[in-house]
Predict the structure.
Amino acid sequence: MNLSYMLHVLWTNWLWWLAGAWVGLWLVPLARIIPRMVLQQYAQAPLHEWQGPGGGLEQTNPPARRIWVPVLNASLWAYAADTASHPTFWAALLWAGLASTLLLLAIIDWDTTLLPDWVVLPLGVAGLGSSYAGFTPQSLPASVASAAVVLGMLGGLAWVFQRTKGDSGIGGGDLKLLAALATWWGVIGVLYVVLGASVVTVVWNLVWRRFKGFSPQAEWPFGPAIVVAALAWGLLQVAQAV
């Protein structure tokens, strides 16, 4: 994917790029509004205890986030429009929505170590609907089975790890997100995502601790690495299908 191709994608799909940028602008405040509402409604712990590397909900949004999030989201929307299969509009809108939802989850998890069911569960339902409509490479029964297998397999491994080491190694929100992704890409796709996310989170953690420091109160979330790996896997699948 060279620079000339990227410029071509942006130029020929400029309406999608503008729409993606507009949606991206809303992702920044939504990444604070949604977890705040969830925590105020369900969680007993104070807001300041939900703190990831992004600093938690009591920190202001970094100014750079208002730039790179719309730009990245706009680029993902333009790429979705350029590579979508028939029917082009609905397929592009579907994959653009998936990318924006993943980006929203990554920001929320980075700030709070929280992956809200309000976002994750609709992502899984959308995957089931997409499989039923023929937008994913698997049927609806296969999509349901994939989610169940991923949840049971990874949940079982987490339970065994919890019993032997005292720490599950993966959160419930991460398990639900991976199960939701299984409705889109199946078991094999999710296993590739987990492998990629594991590498990403190790490297990311080392680099962040080396150059940015890390608050003792903060926890390191796995969700952003899952999102990076999922977006990479999705782009790879689309590129191979073109």
The mean pLDDT is 86. The CA atoms of residues 46 and 176 lie 24 Å apart. The longest helix spans residues 172-211.
